[in-house]
């Protein structure tokens, strides 16, 4: 209990406005501690950052509670040491193939009157009540667009006169056990969770510039275990999807393809890897250690192009799955043409060219928009999600669930109500 008390004391005496973000991924856990200087939503002073190898987390679910707790503690302690102060709660990113995004619609009669904020909230609550609720909690619910009578695509209908008001609401849910286990694990590290944000949405918030968010863009975050896709429309998150392939799958392909260890394959990928089968230097012979009959690595040589022939099919498959996911989404008819690629695996040579060819659109490589404040070490695509978690609340996205309009349904509190109860319980008991 002494550690708990010291954390609370430290936080009570810390400088106001300090926020912390915790991104739990399949290969790494990152923690950022920062404070907005008040001059704009993206004006963050980064006080400290920590990064640790992720243990006990795979495919969006916990596989080893103690291992993951230790990784979280180490990442947070690194960030606290650099920041010179302790934290007591974090904004937590959540990912995995079990996250689901559903688009729901609803409408209410206005009767020719001026639309009020109260009626907008009532409409949001009505739409939210139509979202799936059995065994899941709502992480977020963003109004994508409103319909005022026959006028589509209205962003803010307050003050307009109408007979009928409609809404298209994007609702993100996750299985309740996954949320409870993650919050419990973070709680064991003596940290409360102030907010839960889908990691793919955080990646977009951290990587897309304001113009892209306002006018629409697709952010593709290539992580180690999954590739997350988020779509922004009308200045707001609109949809997310997840593809179960990432950088570790490429590494595994190399290890299996040439008969070497995972660590050796990771180094080969990082130093010599490319997804471009027509690039220069593919005939160059490189050192590629392989496992011998005695189970030890032996020095071998092979052409660089042989590595590319293993990497390229997996990268192509990843973007083909991304395209299928987008084609099956509820926003396929209004998909923006701007595509931003981020995440650690996006830094592999040739990936952008493959993405542009398969998705048939221009693609830019994105890094955190607050990279100038993160510095050279943290200002890389690997920290896009963590930086986006810091920025998420600053960017002012309307969240119908977080705004307290969730209603009781099926005899229990849906959406953020159930999650907030868990947060409150953890803060009180840990």
Automatic annotation (TrEMBL):
Organism whose genome encodes this protein: Hyphomonas oceanitis SCH89
Record SUPFAM superfamilies: Actin-like ATPase domain
Pfam families: FtsA (PF14450), SHS2_FTSA (PF02491)
Bilayer disposition of the protein: Peripheral membrane protein
Protein name (record): Cell division protein FtsA
InterPro entries in UniProt: ATPase_NBD (IPR043129), Cell_div_FtsA (IPR020823), FtsA/MreB (IPR050696), SHS2_FtsA (IPR003494)
Any one Gene Ontology BP term: FtsZ-dependent cytokinesis
Subcellular location: Cell membrane
Keywords on record: Cell cycle, Cell division, Cell membrane, Membrane
Organism ancestry: Bacteria, Pseudomonadati, Pseudomonadota, Alphaproteobacteria, Hyphomonadales
Coiled-coil residues: none
Listed HAMAP family: FtsA
């Amino acid at each position: 209990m002494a550690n708990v008390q010291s954390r609370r004391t430290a936080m009570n005496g810390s400088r106001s406005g300090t926020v912390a973000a915790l991104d739990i991924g399949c290969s790494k856990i990152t923690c950022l501690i920062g404070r907005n200087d008040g001059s704009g939503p993206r004006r963050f002073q980064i006080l400290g950052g920590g990064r640790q190898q992720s243990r006990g987390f795979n495919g969006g679910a916990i596989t080893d509670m103690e291992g993951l707790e230790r990784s979280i503690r180490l990442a947070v302690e690194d960030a606290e040491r650099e920041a010179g102060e302790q934290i007591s709660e974090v904004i937590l990113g959540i990912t995995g193939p079990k996250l689901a995004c559903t688009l729901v619609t609803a409408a209410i009669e206005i009767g020719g009157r001026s639309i009020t904020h109260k009626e907008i909230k009532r409409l949001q609550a009505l739409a939210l009540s139509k979202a799936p609720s059995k065994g899941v909690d709502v992480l977020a619910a963003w109004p994508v667009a409103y319909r005022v009578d026959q006028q589509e695509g209205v962003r803010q209908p307050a003050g307009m006169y109408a007979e009928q008001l409609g809404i298209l609401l994007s609702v993100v849910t996750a299985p309740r056990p996954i949320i409870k286990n993650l919050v419990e694990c973070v709680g064991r590290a003596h940290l409360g969770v102030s907010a839960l944000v889908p990691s793919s949405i955080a990646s977009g918030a951290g990587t897309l510039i304001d113009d892209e968010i306002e006018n629409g863009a697709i952010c593709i975050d290539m992580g180690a275990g999954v590739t997350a896709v988020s779509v922004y429309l009308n200045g707001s998150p609109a949809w997310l999807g997840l593809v179960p392939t990432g950088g570790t799958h490429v590494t595994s392909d190399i290890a299996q393809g040439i008969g070497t260890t995972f660590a050796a394959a990771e180094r080969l990928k990082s130093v010599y890897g490319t997804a471009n089968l027509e690039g220069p230097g593919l005939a160059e012979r490189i050192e590629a250690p392989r496992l011998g009959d005695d189970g030890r690595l032996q020095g071998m040589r092979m052409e660089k192009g042989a590595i590319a022939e293993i990497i390229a099919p997996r990268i192509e498959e990843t973007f083909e799955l991304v395209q299928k996911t987008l084609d099956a989404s509820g926003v396929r008819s209004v998909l923006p043409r701007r595509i931003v690629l981020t995440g650690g695996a996006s830094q592999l040579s040739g990936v952008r060219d493959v993405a542009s060819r398969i998705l048939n659109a221009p693609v830019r490589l994105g890094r955190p928009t607050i990279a100038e404040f993160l510095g050279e070490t943290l200002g890389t695509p690997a920290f896009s999600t963590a930086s986006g978690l810091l920025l998420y609340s600053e960017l002012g996205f309307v969240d119908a669930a977080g705004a307290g309009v969730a209603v009781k349904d099926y005899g229990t509190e849906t959406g953020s109500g159930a999650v907030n109860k868990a947060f409150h319980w953890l803060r009180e008991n840990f």
